[in-house]
Amino acid sequence: MGFEMSESVLFVCAQNVCRSPLMAAAFQEALRAEGELGLGPSEWEVESVGTVASEGHRACRIASGLEPAAATHHSVRLEADDLDVADIVIVASLDERSIVARMRPQARSRTFTLREAVLLGEQPIDAGSITEYAAALHSRRGTLDLPKPSSLPWRRGPEPLDVVDVHQMGPRAHRKGLERAAIDARLLASRLRRDLAART
Fold it and tell me: pLDDT digits over 79-121, tens only?
């Protein structure tokens, strides 16, 4: 997998059959829909990979059902070179964020969980490129009161910044988690387009 010279967004999860292909497809669909509304085309490269992916597996049925574009997806394993060329890296969970940071420490400042990127980008950002947008998000780390998991052991739930891997929790929980991820991915696409367009 490799990006061309255009700006690039890389989505990452573990197996690359559920969360990251769903997020990438929803992100691309939002860009396509806004382009049809006259908001201008996007020439961004959008890809998805998995930290422990086996090559060539199709996206899961629920992800493909929610985002039909994911139906043509085949899993790809994350390589360090992918992180060198991506302008922003959007991961499903803090686990993948840690893996990215260990693989390429210099990518840490442009790597965010999907939910983290959405929360950090709530206020408009003055950016002329995806690289500048990622830098602005990074500069807001530590300045916002991001949600944290309960400190009480008996109330410990999922990490609120994660898109949780819920394959083992049944189809209802699986669908609900992916629906939320799709909403957030569309929102991220809309904000990126909005904030970058404001500079032009």
Answer: 999 999 999 999 999 999 999 999 999 999 999 999 999 999 9
Cα 48 from Cα 118, distance rounded (Å)? 18
Fold exhibited by the domain 8-197: Rossmann fold (3.40.50)
* Residue 170, phi then psi, degrees to nearest 5: 95, 160
DSSP 8-state class, residue 54: P
User: Given this model, what pLDDT does residue 146 score?
Assistant: 67
Confidence of residue 153 (pLDDT cuts 50, 70, 90): low
CB atoms within 10 A of CB 58: 15
Residue 40 has pLDDT above 60, yes or no: no
How is the chain split into domains, by residue range? Answer: 8-197
Q: Which of 12, 35, 7 is nearest to 24 (CA)?
A: 12
Place of tokens 């686990």: 95
pLDDT score recorded for residue 154: 46
Determine contact, residues 49/20, Cβ cutoff 8 Å: yes
Count Cα atoms within 13 angstroms, Cβ side, for 170: 2
Q: Which residue has the tokens 């690039």?
A: 8
CB 18 within 8 A of CB 59: yes
Tokens of residue 49, six digits: 């990979």
